[in-house]
Design a protein that fits this description.
Blueprint (H helix, E strand, L loop, with lengths): L11 H25 L13 H21 L4 H23 L7 H24 L11
Helix pairs in contact: 1-2, 1-4, 2-3, 3-4
């Protein structure tokens, strides 16, 4: 339980794991934000750009793989992956919908980034709360 854990500062191993998570998060948020930017306010720019769906898919899959590489199997890892999947689906909705205004696209785009942030926090929690013997070996 979280209440039973006291703060343990990052050591060399956990700091390396956090850096991997943060790098994957930064790549994901950058690519996803740039990919969905044209769709936020432009009603003519929607849903007919397969390369945009592929960009979102590839970068979110890379984020998931980074989390799986450095985090132990845990509820926090599952939550991180779920947040990344939600972000991907929301980004796809922004691309499909474009500026049609079926809902507030800029707000939806903000939620995409929020889900990626939540994934980062969950992945870091998985590392922070793990016992050293629970962490997967890094290659």
């Amino acid at each position: 339980m979280l209440e039973d854990k006291k703060y343990i500062p990052p050591n060399e191993d956990t700091a390396r794991r956090y850096k991997i998570v943060v790098a994957a998060f930064l790549a994901a948020i950058s690519v996803v934000d740039e990919t969905i930017k044209p769709y936020k306010h432009n009603a003519d720019h929607k849903g007919n750009h397969p390369e945009d769906f592929n960009s979102v898919r590839d970068v979110t899959q890379s984020f998931i793989e980074a989390c799986e590489q450095v985090c132990p199997k845990s509820a926090d890892l599952s939550a991180a992956i779920r947040c990344i999947r939600i972000s991907r689906m929301l980004a796809n909705q922004v691309i499909l919908q474009g500026g049609e205004r079926l809902c507030d696209v800029p707000l939806l785009a903000l939620r995409v980034k929020q889900s990626l942030w939540e994934a980062r926090v969950q992945a870091c929690a998985a590392i922070a709360l793990a016992e050293p013997n629970e962490l997967p070996d890094l290659e």
